[in-house]
Amino acid sequence: MSEEEARQVVIGRLLEKAHQALAAASLNLNAGDSGLASNRVYYACFYAVSAVLLKDRQRFVKHAGVRTAMHKHLVHGGKLSEELGRFYDKAFAQRQEADYNAMAVFDAPRFVAAMEGLLGKAA
Length: 123
Known about the structure:
Blueprint: H1 3-30, H2 34-55, H3 63-75, H4 82-97, H5 103-119
């Protein structure tokens, strides 16, 4: 398998993990576990934006690196709305605090869909 093929496999796996995390967030929220739901919402977004950054051959070891790159290359680059950039920041903070806002579940699928759009993939 070539390096490019391997990269595409990883991108696909990251998107798959994003959708699994969204499904888990809904289940956790319905079960009354808002802290775990918040965690899964953040990771859905993290996996999706990591896929987009990997498409551009950018990899990061730390979550802060992914967050910074998202703002620099996607939000400031005009590829992602400032609103979704703020949503990512909020999801990041909520995961850190394990404090969940029910509205996040409704915006997370939109964030993942926006990342898929940047990858040229159907949501």
